[in-house]
Design goal:
Blueprint: E1 4-15, E2 21-22, E3 25-26, E4 33-34, H1 42-55, H2 60-63, H3 76-89, E5 92-102, H4 112-123, E6 130-135, H5 141-144, E7 148-159
Parallel strand pairs: 5-6
Antiparallel strand pairs: 1-4, 1-7, 2-3, 5-7
Helix pairs in contact: 1-3, 3-4
Amino acid sequence: MSSRSGIGYDSHRFAEGRELILGGVEVEGAERGLDGHSDADALTHATIDALLGAAGLGDIGLHFPDTDERWRDADSIALLREVVRMVGDAGWTVGNVDATVICEAPKLGAYRERMRDTLAAALGTAPDAVNVKFTTNERMGPIGRGEGIAALATAALAPIDGRAKDR
Ligand code: MG
């Protein structure tokens, strides 16, 4: 039985008066946070979609619709833990996650290890199974103009012995 892979993408606009949370970590001193129904954690949302994609379980909007008051200001790390449970129920364990956060500012490199460790704890993996990268969009387009933050993620899943449905 081979492993499975999935991709995820998310973006959120900056908004005044909100905390900036990425990978479950609050970026201290950020001038603006991100607008969204939940905590708008684009990195965690991209990770969730990568996992759901790899498991063939749809996407984040299917499971946590932004029309549902239950998910208002939701802690996205709690949603990620729920998705890891769903993926496990479908017979898969997380192999690794690789992610890229795209923004012009703020600089996020100082948060790399905390984001990795927070995501790894929610994923149930060792920290070295998670990699978080940062880049700018070279001032091109809406992300390059500083209108928001985007994130990409890939996830690999391995079958739990005897349980993956498509063996
Ligand atoms: Mg989102």
